[in-house]
Structure prediction request, 193 residues.
Amino acid sequence: MRQVILTRDFEDGGYVAEVPSLPGCISEGDTKEEALAQAQDALLTVFDAYMRDRRDIPAPSERSGVSVELPALETAKIELYRAMLTQKVNKSELARRLDWHLPQVDRVIDVHHGSQIDQIEAAFAALGKKLVLNVIDVDVNVIRTTLRATVQQRPRTAVHAGVLAAARQHGPRHAAAASRSSGSRAKRAAKKR
Prediction:
């Protein structure tokens, strides 16, 4: 869960969502829900860039105010990566411990790859850890709003390609700029024409 600062963009309309714990992680949308759904996508893109650069990912913040929660699979992958860094276990060592090929390890920590949960459990076990899931009750209206915003957002691959390229070339700050330019502003500019 990451705290998000949600502000109204009076110049272009819509909303801007910024993650204060990750400078440069900014997204936007025509509605609050869309901005938050885009923030989730921007978070994954920034985390992917951090992981490729072998940078430390800050721990999630305590829930206060508006926040964005990542899906369970992606959260497990991020926590696996954090455990690897803490134990100073690189991908080659993890592959050796699991008797896997290196591309298998690459996929199990790739936040954009749909890994099987048993693979992630095996990777945690190789680090002396156990993955535990927790199911809680939530407000059904919140879930419906989140699902509607997620369905309405652009396809993930369209956002990731430009944002990830910017992150690789220039770092997370430029990734956020690429995320903003590929999002709702482009839609509003097209409407004005």
User: Anything to note?
Assistant: The two ends are 38 Å apart (CA to CA). Strands lie at 2-3, 5-8, 15-18, 26-29, 67-68. The first strand starts at residue 2 and ends at 3.
